[in-house]
């Protein structure tokens, strides 16, 4: 069975830089050979959960600015799958979750930067799904739960986000993490590994430094979706930091 994953997409530069984190992503891709990938990306927000539904090659979206020209030359020409999109739609609607489909949107950097490192041949169908950061954590968890079992069918489910993501508090050039960022991730891990869902669902009130770590929820909620989709206790598969406060903690469920 393929586990559900929560992966940090961090800076778009991970698509062209060689770092211990990009080495980790490459090795992670070698561990699993899915027949399709379903990825919930923090960079596609919508009020109604939206599923990409196409059999065509996706455009590569460069939804960022001010980076080296080399980054804008990277393309990730993966195809979609209308069949798997339809299966997702059926499972979600059967569980009372409203969805719609989109046949035109390309892959944003929350998806392609990770997949470019994991599966550079771009030969696995990708189904991209939006997030609604305004939904409560319990509802995010329920979205993942509604499509639980895909790993048994050879489909890799990824929640793409970041646990500690505050662009205003980045410290350029700093390689050692700020203690408060580490403390937030430590708290998160403790609650995940004890399966304390109720406390996790109330992280905004109970976690130390929650306001600094999660000023907006769009990068955090993919964690709850991956958690809901998983069938086992959380395991840390990578943990590192950049720019003082940017967490690259990754989990499998």
Automatic annotation (TrEMBL):
Q: Where is the signal peptide?
A: none
Cofactor requirements of the protein: Zn(2+)
Instruction: Give the domain of life.
Output: Bacteria
Query: What is a GO molecular function of this protein?
Result: zinc ion binding
The residue ranges crossing the membrane are none
> For the Extradiol ring-cleavage dioxygenase class III enzyme subunit B domain, which residue ranges apply?
4-241
Asked if the record carries the keyword Metal-binding, the reply is yes
Q: Which organism is it from?
A: Paenibacillus tianmuensis
Q: Does the keyword Isomerase apply?
A: no
Keyword annotations for this protein, in alphabetical order, are:
Dioxygenase, Metal-binding, Oxidoreductase, Zinc
Name the InterPro entries on file. Answer: Extradiol_dOase_DODA, Xdiol_dOase_suB
The entry sums up its family as follows:
Belongs to the DODA-type extradiol aromatic ring-opening dioxygenase family.
What is the name listed in the Swiss-Prot or TrEMBL entry for this protein?
Answer: Aromatic ring-opening dioxygenase, catalytic subunit, LigB family
């Amino acid at each position: 069975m393929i586990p559900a994953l929560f992966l940090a997409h961090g800076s778009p530069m991970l698509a062209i830089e060689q770092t211990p984190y990009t080495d980790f992503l490459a090795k992670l891709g070698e561990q699993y050979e899915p027949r399709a990938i379903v990825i919930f990306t923090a960079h596609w927000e919508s009020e109604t959960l939206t599923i990409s539904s196409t059999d065509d090659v996706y455009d590569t979206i460069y939804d960022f600015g001010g980076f080296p020209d080399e980054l804008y030359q990277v393309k990730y020409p993966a195809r979609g799958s209308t069949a798997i999109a339809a299966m997702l739609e059926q499972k979600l609607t059967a569980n009372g979750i409203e969805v719609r489909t989109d046949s035109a949107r390309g892959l944003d950097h929350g998806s392609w930067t990770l997949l470019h490192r994991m599966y550079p041949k771009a030969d696995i169908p990708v189904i991209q799904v939006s997030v609604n950061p305004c939904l409560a954590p319990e509802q995010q968890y329920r979205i993942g739960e509604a499509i639980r079992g895909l790993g048994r069918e050879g489909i890799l489910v990824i929640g793409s986000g970041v646990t500690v993501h505050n662009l205003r508090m980045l410290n350029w050039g700093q390689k050692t993490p700020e203690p408060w960022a580490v403390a937030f991730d430590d708290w998160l891990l403790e609650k995940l590994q004890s399966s304390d869902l109720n406390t996790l669902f109330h992280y905004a009130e109970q976690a130390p430094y929650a306001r600094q770590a999660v000023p907006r929820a769009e990068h955090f909620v993919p964690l709850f979706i991956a958690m809901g989709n998983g069938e086992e206790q959380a395991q840390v598969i990578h943990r590192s930091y950049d720019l003082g406060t940017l967490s690259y903690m990754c989990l499998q469920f």
